[in-house]
Amino acid sequence: MSALSASELAWYATGRFYRAADGSLADYGYFLHLPFADCAMFSGAPGETTAHFTFAAQPFRDRTATNGSLSLALDAVGEFSLYLQRVPCGNFDSPDSFAQGERIALFRRSTLVVDTTLSAAVGSATTTPLLIANLFTAWLIESAPFERDGRRYDLGAAIGRGVTQIGFAATTPALPAPSGYSVVVPFTGSAMALGR
After folding, report:
1. Is the pTM of this model over 0.70?
2. Which terminus of the chain is more exposed, N or C, with fewer CB under 10 A?
């Protein structure tokens, strides 16, 4: 496994943001690509129930600011973990299912994250959120090597100090929220390695 250069693609991820009844936020999901050559990402057709590599964030609180049609959510610095699920068990109706298996990496966002939501007027009185975008850097805190199919992998050796990720989320149509959650928003993220 070779190390990525700075700014080289590290991963593609997709998941969902969940707002809990207590107002806290967290995101959970799975990876479509990681820098693991010849390592199967899925046990079948790509999706959360077949994904071998998942992620889960520690719940955090946000604050908000507004600027016209832009709503800015200021997400606190926090941590998220990556997992190897040798037997995939991810399920968006059960967000904690993405925090199962062997933890292969721990990241900490380097600063607060600004989630920018663009809204548009609908009719004469209401506005509808259309798109959420964010950009953040996360430092690699821990990396645990693992073996699969006779090969050894280590995310830290591949990406170096961490990643910078850009993400986009669609807010319509609204997704049904599992018990204990009030809002669920799907997103996708692409990250570049920071290198050494």
Report:
1. yes
2. C
